[in-house]
Write a structure and sequence with these properties.
This protein is α/β, with parallel strands linked by helices. It folds into 2 domains: 2-163, no CATH class; 169-280 and 330-528, Spore Coat Polysaccharide Biosynthesis Protein SpsA, Chain A. Helix content is 44%, strand content 9%. It contains 24 helices and 11 strands. The strands form 3 sheets. Strands 5-4-3-6-9-8-10 form a 7-stranded mixed beta sheet. Helix 2 crosses helix 3 (53-61), helix 7 packs parallel to helix 14 and helix 13 (300-306) packs antiparallel against helix 14 (312-322). The protein is globular, with a radius of gyration of 30 Å. Bound molecules: 2-acetamido-2-deoxy-beta-D-glucopyranose (4 copies). The site of one 2-acetamido-2-deoxy-beta-D-glucopyranose has 4 residues, from loops. One of its GO terms (biological process) is pectin biosynthetic process. Pathway: Glycan metabolism; pectin biosynthesis. Its EC number is 2.4.1.-. Belongs to the glycosyltransferase 8 family.
Length: 534
């Protein structure tokens, strides 16, 4: 018999083997409990409670049928019925005592003879005909060992997923390198974007202005292509792509060689914005400090992993909090849209993990009632998993600063596809508030919130949000794999928020085509870097 625990701990498989069948037959025969029944109970118990599967096996080994200890009897009562029948059992108390004792840290350290599988364990028991106490001690050792292994595997799995989602796949690296090379060798890849005669459109409020901040060329292209392709009047669309220093030349090369006429595309690196080069930029300073605090956060990653009393999910969350991804300038820069685009009065801000499936110009017809940020709410909706986000999901309400200022049940909203009324924004102190709270969070050692730009966003835009129809922004495609293709197709904009980004191997295969269909896989750069449709 083999006991196999999957790293996700969702599946426990018990494979019957010859030895066990014999064992159970031998021990069980006299008790009129069928092998099959015992096998099912074993399976069931293993699944439900880590120790309970003992119950069915134990009494066949050391069955003192006359006594019924209180815990033993309780165990008898709480045990589930198998195939409508209870399994009769009297468990010696010593077994409960041994199994109930808290596990100490180095309990199984240095012991090399612990059975590694149920099969070995059973064989050993069969051979030695142990008493209940040594049975329980052995079992305990085995279960502790298996648990430690499962725990390690689980943390590893979380880490792999985290690494997989935050690192850049080699195909995308390849693409950036090839494009950078093209940029230096081919004048056609160095066009000014947009061309000089279209520059006035960049500050003309009769156009529809979109802003996208990204350091991922392919992702940015899918957003741009899907935006333009689904537009009724693409010639009225201006997309401002903001990128960082290292991505600037690949981005410029790509959009020079793959123009999306008649739409107007601007590619600009952050350092090229006047406002940012004028000196003091609070977001940059805050980020620098933030990075410093994070690297020492709770003793750094080694200390976090070393704590073996913590749940794997908690460990994974703490490690994630250290990730530079949550601190990238591309993420924080949206709080300075009014300063970055001083002549525009309204923009739609897009994340790079979305796909647009409809014409977005009607967003300009939405009456924002004087509010600054048009966003979808994330606390109501059919999908109770994705749509369950309130302030308490993001902010630490055990902290008095948060508890005294905000309502834990206030509905959260989403970044990803937001209408920003920059005129209204300029009349507020939103950016100041944002920085004030970033500072507070740093001062209190990241105890107000841990991750990302949404929590300070929720605070800064508090009272400045206008709720728009959920059609405009469907969330969760990067972490909920039960979203169907048909459902996703009905949304105006879909958002692959979560780990399973469509450009990664861990993307959900049924949803990836919604993203991949905007890429020409026969393109020489795409093909040259082995980027494939699936
Ligand atoms: C491990 O985590 C637990 C639960 O959060 C905490 O109480 C304990 O102090 C931590 N141990 C170490 C060594 O950090
Ligand atoms: C997906 O599963 C979650 C729970 O896991 C559920 O709340 C949600 O309604 C499901 N969504 C769909 C589209 O079936
Ligand atoms: C913005 O902050 C300044 C200084 O703190 C204050 O004087 C002003 O009234 C605030 N404006 C708004 C609209 O809250
Ligand atoms: C939340 O705030 C409380 C009170 O300051 C603090 O003790 C706790 O560690 C914070 N929680 C997190 C997850 O930072």
């Amino acid at each position: 018999m083999q006991l196999h625990i999957s790293p996700s701990l969702r599946h426990v498989t018990v494979l019957p083997g010859k030895g066990v069948r014999e064992f159970i037959k031998v021990k069980v025969g006299s008790r009129r409990v069928s092998y099959r029944m015992l096998f099912y109970s074993l399976l069931f118990f293993t699944f439900l409670l880590r120790f309970v599967f003992v119950l069915s096996t134990v009494d066949t080994i050391d069955g003192d049928h006359s006594k019924c200890s209180t815990i033993g009897c309780l165990g008898k009562r709480i045990r589930p019925r198998i195939l409508g029948r209870r399994i009769e059992s009297n468990i010696p108390e010593v077994i409960y005592q041994i199994l109930d004792k808290p596990v100490s840290k180095d309990e199984v350290q240095g012991k090399s003879d612990i059975p590694q599988t149920l099969e070995e364990f059973m064989a050993e028991m069969k051979e030695s005909r142990s008493d209940a106490k040594s049975f329980a001690l052995r079992l305990r050792e085995m279960v502790v060992l298996l648990e430690q292994r499962a725990r390690t595997a689980k943390i590893q799995e979380y880490l792999y997923r985290h690494v997989a989602s935050s690192s850049i796949p080699k195909q995308l690296h390849c693409l950036a390198l090839k494009l950078a090379n093209e940029h230096s060798n081919n004048a056609a890849a160095r066009l000014q974007l947009p061309s000089p005669e279209l520059v006035p459109a960049l500050v003309d409020n009769s156009y529809f202005h979109f802003v996208l901040a990204s350091d991922n060329v392919l992702a940015a292209f899918v957003v741009a292509k899907s935006l333009v392709k689904n537009a009724f009047s693409p010639e009225k669309f201006v997309l401002h792509i903001i990128t960082d220093r290292k991505t600037y030349s690949p981005m410029q090369a790509w959009f020079s060689l793959h123009p999306l006429m008649p739409a107007i595309i601007e590619v600009k690196a952050l350092y090229q914005f006047d406002w940012l080069s004028k000196g003091k930029v609070p977001v940059l300073e805050a980020m620098e400090k933030d990075q410093k605090v994070r690297s020492q956060f709770r003793g750094g990653s080694t200390a976090i992993v070393a704590n073996n009393t913590e749940k794997p999910q908690v460990i994974a969350a703490k490690l994630q909090a250290l990730s530079p991804k949550y601190n990238s300038l591309m993420n924080h820069i949206r709080i300075h849209l009014p300063e970055l685009f001083p002549s525009l009065n309204k923009v739609v801000f897009l994340d790079d993990d979305i796909v647009i499936q409809t014409d977005l110009s009607p967003l300009w017809d939405i009456d924002m009632n004087g509010k600054v940020n048009g966003a979808v709410e994330t606390c109501r909706g059919e999908d109770s998993f994705v749509m369950s986000k309130r302030f308490k999901s993001y902010l630490n309400f055990s902290h008095p600063l948060i508890a005294n200022n905000f309502d834990p049940n206030e509905c959260a909203w989403a970044y990803g596809m937001n209408i920003f009324d920059l005129d209204a924004w300029r009349k507020t102190n939103i950016s100041l508030t944002y920085h004030h709270w970033l500072e507070e969070n740093l001062k209190s050692d990241l105890s107000l919130w841990q991750l990302g730009t949404l929590p300070p966003g929720l605070i800064a835009f508090h009272g400045h949000v206008h709720v728009i129809d959920p059609f405009w922004h469907m969330l969760g495609l990067g972490y909920q794999d039960n979203t169907t293709l048909a459902d996703a197709e009905t949304a105006g904009v879909i958002h692959f928020n979560g780990r399973a980004k469509p450009w990664l191997d861990i993307a959900f295969p049924q949803l990836r085509p919604l993203w991949a269909k905007y890429i020409d896989f026969s393109d020489k750069f795409i093909k040259g870097c082995h980027i494939r449709a699936s």
